[in-house]
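User: Quick one: structure for sequence A, then sequence B.

Assistant: Sequence A:
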Amino acid sequence: MPVIVIGAGAAGMLAAISAAENGKQVVLLEKNSKPGVKILMSGGTRCNITQATDRLGIVAAFGDQGPFLHSALAALGPDELVDLIEIEGVPTKKEPTGKIFPQSDRARDVRNALLNRLNRSGAQLVLGEAAKNMTSRSDGFLIETDQSSYQCGSVIVTSGGQSYPGCGTTGDGYAWAKSLGHTIVPPRPALVPLTTSPHWTNTLSGVTIADAELSLHQEASSDNATRAISRRGSLLLTHFGISGPVAMDISRFITTSPHRQRLSMTCDFLPNQSREQLTETWKQISVSDGKRPLQQSLSEMLPRRVVEQLLQEAGITIDRRFAELSRGDRDRLLTAIKAMEIPIAGNLGFKRAEVTAGGISLSEVDSKTLQSKRVPGLFFAGEVLDLDGPIGGYNFQAAFSTGWLAGQSVD
């Protein structure tokens, strides 16, 4: 009997390739009319394949979930993944952030590389056929689709989470897993743009700050001490709030926090300079060029529209000069630049989330094989699992690696 893989995304294609190259008869079912739809959309259609780090770097990035990935990364680590792509004629490049992209900046080149390997593996790709039901039987599984049915000895579920539902990732795998006795950690959007309360963020729509630091603070309570989480990177101000890599990255901690009502967020618009360094610079300007307008000097550090807004938030008119600032003025301006509060209103949900947090409980899946601990012959890989990492290629690496290991492990 064949091995059925459900979902031809990053995890599914690697699972099918791995199993087929191991001599298994493989049928890869995909509900969409083309495979790898999320790959094509990812990274602004550029596809951030992985991160320039080693296996332990990937594990560390996933925090408490990281140890689950040891065996998967041993089977296919970041270097092996890059080699797999490049062998298919797609050279890659490393950007300053450590993100690995195809040199062409075309996600379709990555998808086509995987499709070429899939075609050579001998796996059968069936497009436009959606799995509807999965039943465990004494001799394997019955997979019923909207067009047919398949009897198989093993099945690998790589149907994804709920992020970007337009890609076909509508959480189908959760219902199948639950019907077979698995626990589903409630899915939440992760790596998602955030909506904010203050009007000033909306008035600056379209402005990008190349380097900003967002910090989350949780108010102290009787059962949870105050803690801070910070992320740094490019920040995009929008008509609804904030986006860009740094906002998307920190969103994971907001959407998964059980104490969201106690979270507050601040922004450091100049994280490469401390408050003391800025204070000293301003004192020097006051002495050497005290008549220089504040707006002119600050606009050399930040976009002009942002400077105007920060001055307004600090209660300082744009025509003020450095020599005219009182100590109180400087303190308010420093706070506006280094610790501007951005009240969190919400997020744009699964429709705009790059990743799903939550999913099939890792405690019920054997990390050494990706086989269910509840149902022999049932395997899970990719975003359907309760695995979510930071922005920067980590999540694709986890999908590729878990898919590869699951494919190697099927009987």
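Sequence B:
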Amino acid sequence: MADDDVFGQINALSDEEERLWQSAGDGHGLAADEHARLEAIKVELDRAYDLLHQRAARRAAGLDPSDAEPRPAEVVERYQQ
């Protein structure tokens, strides 16, 4: 997956997240499935950003960035901030 593909995925997920928050702003809040989808989007965004960081690190080290692979959610979500 190329950087542009990852950025496209990030943009699509961000757009969906924004639409969900806008619909929640109508005074009715979020339905359970919408809340679950927001949580899933958060995880997928974290994974996408992690992949971009991996690709950049490989590039900086003189390695092939295309060898970077998305890490499982269980790994990415356990990173310390």
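The two ends are 26 Å apart (CA to CA). The chain has three helices and no strands.

User: Thanks, that's what I needed.
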